[in-house]
Amino acid sequence: MFVVNWWKKLYWNVKISGSKNACLPLLVASLLVRWKVVLKNVPYIWDVVTMLEIMWTLWVQYNFLDDTLFLDTSKLSLDNFQASRIKEIRASILLLGPILQFFNKLSIPQPWGCSIWKRPIDWHLEWLKTIWYDYKYTDDCMIEITWTKTSWDKVINAWFSVTSTENLVLANVLRNWKTIIKLAAIEPHVMSLINFLKLAWADIYVDYDHTIIIEWVGSLNNNLWYEVISDYIESGTFMIIWALLSREYIDIENARVDDLYAFIEKMREAWVKIDITWNDSVRVRRSTSLKSVSLQTNIFPWFPTDLQSPFSILLTQADWVSRIHEILFESRLNFLVEIEKVKWHIAILNPHEALIFWKTNFKSWETLTSWDLRAWVAMVILALLIEWETKITNVNYIKRGYSNFLEKIRLLGWDVVEE
Ligand code: EPZ
Questions:
Q1: Nearest CA owner, ligand 1 atom 34
Q2: Which atom of ligand 1 is nearest to the CA of 116?
Q3: Cβ contacts of 311 within 8 Å, gap of 6 or more
Q4: Which of 21, 46, 123, 192 to mutate to test the pocket of ligand 1 (most atoms within 8 A of CB)?
Q5: Distance 375 CA to ligand 1 centre (A)
Q6: pLDDT over 90 at 52, yes or no
Q7: Is 26 in the pocket of ligand 1 (CB under 6 A)?
Q8: Which atom of ligand 1 is nearest to the CA of 163?
């Protein structure tokens, strides 16, 4: 694809779409309901479609009407299950919990996702042992999981991992024992899953010290309607784009301001002007100059790792030396090599730390690429900053996680062409 010149601003506002990472666990949670579920504000993106296609092989029926998704999970069956498709999307590991709730044995391959290092699933497999499943790797590289015996109340650690916490919640919500999840992740999408299950009459309590307590309930309420929360990562991304590139201001609707507290504070520290206006909207103005900052990603409510790469592009325009410390994923600084292609003042100190030096003009025409959804968006922002035609390959990454992203960029005034 190409990203080219400033064209003409058509819209003064952008409305943030439903969140990928909130929607995927909700799709899986609908399997526990075993009846009809209606989800609103569903983003039409590849990861959602892929998850639905996998669920279709479990005899789940679904239908889209604009951004409303109608699901019927009453006929759940493993007869035609294409477990091999689990490889295509990391979040499919969440299917473990509901499937093992209703079936005693399952074989799955290792799931993949963005290339941000190993993406292990050891914690997911270890907690299976805690609830009395056994697993082994077979000769054809599958993971075979088998039920061994019934169990009683238990305490399990989730080590602040997002999908491990979601998986533990999904796997235990209908079990006839009490589950205490310690060191639980409390990211907005984890809380949205818990709120969905509570609406379905699940008995779940979240304590301030990252503990989730689940008491047994026999079944979940059917005929549920639930709205997917908007995507705080998309919201933060548009704040960055506007801080760097606008000629005027922009209003961002459904901005998830409360979820972005640490991010907004860092943006302000970098001298970006953000006003929280009304009804979860923000107004962002272009900054005439930007100050360098030191940034560390961490679990919620700290600065989210998924906004680190777009924010790093903002820091290329700051006045002095910025430091990035990415603590969660080892390969999430790899995209900086792409920046080095067009701007040499980057020092990658080790897999987790880098320095970004003060502003320079970007060097020359280059083709950029990425193997990670969030870094791909960072490449779009970089391309918008370079004031001539820039090609970005691997365009499919953006389609995995952002609804109508390139369309929104066009409406805000840039000419973006997909080839
Ligand atoms: C979720 O990934 C998100 N994905 C990621 O978004 C996000 O970057 C990440 O959480 C952190 O917020 C979804 O929600 C589908 P983790 P997840 O388990 O759950 C280590 C995007 O671009 N770990 O919280 O896979 C792991 O290596 C994606 O939308 C183990 O060691 O992340 C990492 O260092 C990318 N063993 C840390 O935990 C395990 O079994 C946190 O990972 C599991 C995780």
A1: 328
A2: 35
A3: 236, 240, 263, 266, 267, 295, 303
A4: 21
A5: 15
A6: yes
A7: no
A8: 19
> Ligand 1 in contact with 374 (CB < 6 A)?
yes
21 CA: nearest ligand 1 atom:
14
Q: Which residues, including other chains, have CB under 8 Å from residue 321's CB and lie 6 or more apart?
A: 292, 355, 356, 357, 358
Question: pLDDT-derived band of residue 87, with 50, 70 and 90 as boundaries?
Answer: confident
In angstroms and rounded to an integer, the radius of gyration of the C-alpha atoms of the chain is 22
Query: Do 162 and 265 reside in the same domain of the chain?
Result: no
215: its two tokens: 């008491």
Cα of 84 vs centre of ligand 1, distance in Å, is 21
CA angle 410–416–418, rounded 5-degree value: 125
Stated length of the chain: 419
67 near 39, Cβ under 8 Å? no
Please report how many Cα atoms fall inside a 13 Å half-sphere around the Cα of residue 197, on the Cβ side. 35
Residue nearest to atom 29 of ligand 1 (CA): 21
Residue 160 CA to ligand 1 center (angstroms) comes to 9
Cα 197 to Cα 157, 161, 298, distances in angstroms: 20, 19, 26
**CB count, 10 Å around CB of 92?**
25
Q: How many domains does the chain have?
A: 2
- Closest protein CA for atom 30 of ligand 1: 120
In this structure, the answer to whether residues 115 and 239 fall within a common structural domain is: no
Question: Do residues 212 and 241 share a domain?
Answer: no
Mean pLDDT of the region 259-285: 95
Q: Are residues 200 and 289 in the same domain?
A: no
Domain with 172 in it: 20-216
Distance from chain centroid for Cα 245: 25
- The pLDDT confidence band at residue 166, using thresholds 50, 70 and 90, is very high
pTM of the predicted protein model: 0.94
Q: Read off the DSSP letter of residue 303.
A: B
Residue to substitute in 47, 122, 163, 396 for testing ligand 1 pocket (most ligand atoms within 8 angstroms of CB)? 163
Q: How far apart are CA 400 and CA 49, in angstroms?
A: 9
Q: Is residue 84 part of a domain?
A: yes
Residue 8 reports pLDDT greater than 90: no
309 lines ligand 1 (CB under 6 A): no
